[in-house]
Structure formats: C-alpha cells, structure tokens
Amino acid sequence: MKRKKVVIGFVLTAIFLTGCGSETIQNSGYESEQETESDSVESRDNDGDVREGTSSDTIGTPEDFPEEYYYGSGRISGWTGEEMLRKTPQPQGNETVLNTAADPANIQVLYLWEEGNAPAVTEFTEDMDRYFDAWDFRPYVTAIPVREGVEPKGAVVLMAGGAYQFRGNYTDSLPTAAALREYGFQTFIVDYRLHPYNQEEGALDVARAVRFIRKNADIYGIDPDNIAVMGFSAGGIQAGEFLMHYDEEVNPTVLDSSFIPDELDEIPAHASAAGMIYSFYGRLSVGNMDPEWLADGNLPPTFYVYGTEDPFYNQFERQYDVIRSMGIQTGRIVLNEWPHGFGSDGGWVEDYADWLEKIFKEEHA
C-alpha cells in the first residue's frame, strides 16, 4: 500500500516537473528550478501538524452519482493512469453560466464563456493536436450540490492537478467534492484551460466560476461571501493566480481587450478562503517566498495539505511560514510519509471542512 502511494506520487511529481519545461523564473522571490528538482527533506520541526494519514474515512463514489462520475474508492491505492487522464462530461448543447438557470438539486455542467467570447491571448489552432484538450475546447464548470435536506454552509471551487498537461478530476476533484458535500458545501469543479494556454487565462476561468456562484448564491442557499477556492498541485497554482491577480473587480479585458464584458463581469470575483493541496502560490514547480509579492495579492486565509515524502515538501514548509508571518490566517495538515498527489485520501478533508466553516463564520463576525 505505502509503496504504491510513493510510486504514484512520484509519477505525478515527474509530470509536474516536466510541465515546467525550461522556463526560467527571474523573480527573486522564487526558488530556482534546480533547487526544486533536488529538494531534499530537511528537519521536520512542525511535529504538531504532522499526522499519520489514513484511508479509513475516504469517501468512495456516492450511490447517487451518475455512472459517468464514478471514480472508485477515492483511495490512492486504487488509482490507475487511465483514471488520472479521464475527462468529465462536457455540457449538453450550448448551456452556459450566462444563459442557463442554476439547478441546486442536480449535478449541472455549464460552459463558462459564451461561444466565441472567451478572453484569450493564446492562439490555439486546429492544426495543434498534441494537447489534452482539442483546439476548440471551452472551459466549463461542474456543479455538485449537497445532498437533499442538508443545509449548505458555503461553496468550494475545485481545480484538479496535472502540471497544466491534464486535469486529474477523477483522482483529485471528484472525490474531494463528494467528501465536501457530506460536510455541507456546495462544490464546483472548474475544467480550466491547460497548455498551450497560460496561467492567466486559466485564472479568468476560475474568476468566471466564482462570479456565477455569487450571482446564484440565494439559489444555492449560501452567503455570497462564503466561497473558497482550492486546488491540487497545478490546480492550486491556478487558484493562486486567480487570488493574486484576477479576483474581485478585475475585468477580463485587462488580459484581452477584444473580450466583450457581460452582466457576470459586474459581479466581484470574491473568495474568502483558499486551499493549497500539495501546492503553493507561485508558478509551476516553483513557489514564491517573497512577502512583498505575496502581499500584493491581499490573500485570504489559506489551508495547506501535503506529505512529508513530497519532493516539494521544503517549499511547502517555507511558504507556509512566510504566509503565517505575514499575519494571514493559516491552517495546515502534514501527512507523514505520504507523497505528492493523493486527492481526498489521507484523512484531511473533514479538518479542512471544519476550518472553512470557522473562516466563514469569522467573515461575518
């Protein structure tokens, strides 16, 4: 069991590093790529946050999930490469967050942008066929509501990892959404744009989903300020890019002047909490440790989850300390001897849910 965890985790990490390519980060707040790849585990002096991971409470596919959302046990021991690369169902027809009413009773899939009007600076053409998504891919959101009769406590927007090469929804996002809804959270999985698109374009996908949720907060039975964004590995970096540069009042025209704003763009893309699941604020494979850079993002309370056998362990430790020293409210779970990439497995989701509930209550205190 443990051996398989480590093997799969390092496979995911290898993909994570490969996705970085030869990009050189010039900002002095970043760790160098060379340091990242040779990251050795230093002394672990945060024993109070370290725990033995467990799969005893990991939630398997709920009985009310449609067959196309079946993800198995949710335990890393049962993962396969095929599951990591499996794509979630796309919207039917041309249903979008703008032209379709929110449905709080069922799983609902909606395109995030109107056809022909998605903000972009990358030219993705029909002859470019080496990517996870086709050239005409349209970002979309999958809304997974709480069970009938459960009073919602808030909403969580999730982004799967995959080094911007793929989205591991069936190993990251779906199992975590299934778990979070048991604790009273409306969940929204964003299929954001991957390579060759850039991190900024994907951040606008996240912002669009947040705006949709805030617009329909009454329908989903939540306070519009009780929204968290979280991501796994590259998905966490994507959440961070949104929080650093593209949240609140930022309009997509900042990136793409040809974009035609609509009524959703008038809604602030405000999120009150973040979840960095084996991830950090920064770029792919390199976290930013510069307090001045991080302060520019006016970051919300942030919860970190990672394993001691993750090659990025030291970066997670360092950024957690920096964020905490800045006075930003933090939470953390460190799983002893767990690798990079474990989805909802390990016994951390309930603690994250409790932390979110506390953060949301403090937001209105």
What are the main properties of this structure?
365 residues; alpha/beta; Rossmann fold; nine-stranded mixed sheet; two-stranded antiparallel ribbon; 10 helices; 11 strands
CATH architecture, by name, is 3-Layer(aba) Sandwich
Q: Could you give me the name of the CATH homologous superfamily? A: Alpha/Beta hydrolase fold, catalytic domain
Tell me roughly what share of residues is in helical segments. Answer: 25-40%
Find the structural class using helix and strand composition.
Answer: alpha/beta
Number of helices: 10
The shape, in one word, is: globular
Just give the CATH class: Alpha Beta
Calculate Rg over CA atoms. 19 Å
Produce a short descriptive summary.
With 365 residues, the protein is of the alpha/beta class. Helix content is 30%, strand content 15%. The protein has helices at residues 2-20, 33-37, 81-84, 169-182, 199-215, 217-220, 234-245, 291-295, 313-325, 349-363; strands spanning 50-52, 108-111, 140-144, 154-159, 185-191, 227-232, 273-277, 282-283, 286-287, 302-307, 330-336.
Would you write up a description of this structure?
- This protein has 365 residues and is an alpha/beta fold.
- The protein has one domain (2-21, 32-363): Rossmann fold.
- Helix content is 30%, strand content 15%.
- The chain contains ten helices and eleven strands.
- The chain has helices at residues 2-20, 33-37, 81-84, 169-182, 199-215, 217-220, 234-245, 291-295, 313-325, 349-363; strands at residues 50-52, 108-111, 140-144, 154-159, 185-191, 227-232, 273-277, 282-283, 286-287, 302-307, 330-336.
- The strands form two sheets. The protein has a nine-stranded mixed sheet, with helices on both faces.
- Helix 4 (169-182) links the parallel strand 4 and strand 5 (185-191).
- Helix 5 (199-215) crosses helix 7 (234-245).
- The N and C termini lie far apart (44 Å).
- Mean pLDDT is 89; it is low at 13-28 and 30-43.
